[in-house]
Structure formats: C-alpha cells, structure tokens
Specification:
CATH class of the largest domain: Mainly Alpha
Structural class: mainly alpha
Helix content: 55-70%
Number of strands: 2
Distance between the termini: 42 Å
Largest sheet: 2 strands, antiparallel
Shape: globular
Strand order of the largest sheet: 1-2
Order of helices and strands: HHHEEHHHHHHHHHHHH
CATH superfamily of the largest domain: MetI-like
CATH architecture of the largest domain: Orthogonal Bundle
Radius of gyration: 27 Å
CATH topology of the largest domain: MetI-like fold
C-alpha cells in the first residue's frame, strides 16, 4: 500500500497481497479458519487461487524464470545429457551398424564386476551411515567444534591422497585386507564421512528443539533421541545423502585402482578405463558407462518414489 493513501472500504485486496491477511477483517481473531488451509470463507476466486498457490504469473515473470533456468540447464545438457547421449549411441553400434553386441560382451566379461561394484558401494554406504548417524546425533545434543571439524576433514582430502595414504599404512601390515572388497569399502566410507556429516548435521539441527526436550524429560538418552526422533524426522535428508554417496561410490576410480590387486573382480570405472585406454574399445567402454548410469539412476528413482508416495 502506498504511504499516506488509504484503501477504499470494501475494496478487493491487491493481487500480490497475502489472502490470509484479507481474512483478518472477515473472520474474528482467534478463529481456526485463519489457519486452516481450506478455510477460504469470504475470499474472492482470485484470493482463493493465491491461497492454493495457483496465482498466474505474468509474461515478464515467465521470461525472468526462463533466463534464470537457462544457464544451469545448459550446463546440465553439456556436461551430462550430451555425454550420456553419445555413450548410449556408441554402446548400441559396432562398425557402423546397430547392434547389442557391446552389451553381450559386458554381460559375458563384466557381469561379476557389476555385482562387485554394487556390493562395494552398498557396503561403503552402509558403513558411512553406521558411523555418521550416531556421531551426528551426539553432536546435535552436545555441540563440540573439534570433533565436528575432524569429522568433516575427509571432505577436503582428494581421492588419490586417500588411496595412497591407506595403501602406505595398510599394505605392510594387512595387505590382504587392503586389496579386498572390504578394505575398499572402508576406504570409500572414510572418504565420504565428511559429505554425510555435512548433510546429516544440517538435517538434525533443523529438527525443532522442543521435540528433543520433550524426549529428554521422559528419560530418553542421546541414542534413543537419535533413533526415535532425529532419524525419522530427517529421513528425507538421509535418503538424499544415501543416493549421493552410493552414486559417488559407484563412480569411484582412484581408491579402488590404488588399493586393488589388479586381478579378479574390479570396480566398473577401472574396467571403463582399461577398455578405452588400453584396448581402444570405445563401444564396450560406452556400454559399461551406460550400465553405471542405469545403476545410479536406479538409486535416484528409489528415492523419488519414496518422497512422492
């Protein structure tokens, strides 16, 4: 409203005004209708639409949103959709002809590696959250800067450094463990502790303190509060973290390459590297890449189905 200018009695509210404010003069204070989402008694059709979030936007606003979305969409197309399209086309062709021979070769030579990759990524993700959830629950109840800092340190350590450091530490003493699937899963879990802690701490700190105080007054300890309150209320953030970390572990290359034996089952990204770099077989390497895309998309679809129920 313009300063110094009074609105006419009974005039319709401005289209950008909150329709709930328009109810203030029509429903007595304290009425439940002021807060109920379907309480639009006395509102005009336009105000009812704004109350539902269905107010139409202008052409200028549409152009503004389109210009704002154009740069990220362009980046997504160049760095993701285009490579995926090229890989898909290459995986379905051989010597200029359309064929499924590349996928047949992947099934024949690398089916074990696909299962190995999924198993290592799943084990690494599980280990990550087994460690992170109790620690983040404890930090939510008792903020302690040094522990939180140490928990986030792996976020800033490169993958190559992690692989080299663990190889130097483990190989002289437990060489079998260092090269095993469990050793790779532990290394990947340590590397992703920082990302998981960053996401989970933010989600836990977003839970209203009143819920935690009520649980403590009933005698619940930190573990019970974390299990029964923080984890259920932060379930969407936990699902996002799981998808991101699982997808990142599927695409891990440096740590498995530096810790692995060089024989037996390998992670898929190592197979892609050798197939393309050593054999020059871009078609089969593209088929392996498409398989990894499908695995990562499968994890994302599970999350999307969960939040849209």
């Amino acid at each position: 409203m313009v300063p110094g200018r009074r609105s006419r009695p009974g005039a319709a509210p401005h289209q950008c005004q909150d329709p709930r404010a328009a109810l203030q003069g029509r429903v007595r204070p304290g009425s439940r209708a002021l807060f109920a989402p379907d309480a639009a008694q006395g509102l005009s059709r336009h105000d009812h639409a704004r109350l539902r979030g269905a107010c139409p936007i202008t052409l200028r606003e549409r152009l503004g949103w389109a210009l704002a979305c154009a740069p990220p969409l362009a980046i997504l197309g160049v760095v993701f959709l285009w490579p995926v399209g090229v890989s898909l086309v290459a995986s379905l062709s051989r010597d200029g002809h359309w064929t499924l021979a590349n996928y047949e070769r992947v099934w024949r030579l690398y089916a074990r590696d696909v299962l190995y990759t999924v198993g290592v990524a799943a084990a690494g993700s599980a280990l990550t959250f087994v460690v992170v959830i109790p620690l983040c629950g404890w930090l939510r109840a008792r903020a302690f800067g040094p522990v939180e800092f140490l928990l986030k340190v792996p976020l800033f350590v490169p993958f190559v450094v992690v692989g080299h450091a663990l190889r130097v530490v483990w190989s002289p003493y437990v060489p079998g463990f260092a090269a095993s699937w469990l050793g790779i899963a532990v290394a990947l879990a340590w590397k992703h502790l920082g990302l998981a802690a960053l996401l989970m701490l933010g989600a836990f700190r977003g839970v209203d303190e009143s819920y935690l105080e009520a649980a403590r007054q009933l005698g619940s300890g930190t573990g019970r509060v974390t299990r029964d309150i923080l984890v259920p209320m932060a379930a969407p953030a936990l699902a996002v973290s799981a998808v991101l970390i699982f997808s990142s572990m599927l695409a891990s290359f440096s740590i498995p390459l530096m810790l692995g034996r060089g024989s037996g089952a390998q992670m898929l990204m190592i197979d892609v590297y050798y197939r393309f770099g050593q054999h020059g077989d871009f078609e089969t390497a593209s088929a392996l890449g498409v398989v990894s895309y499908v695995l990562a998309m499968g994890a994302a679809l599970v999350y999307v189905r969960r939040i849209t129920r």
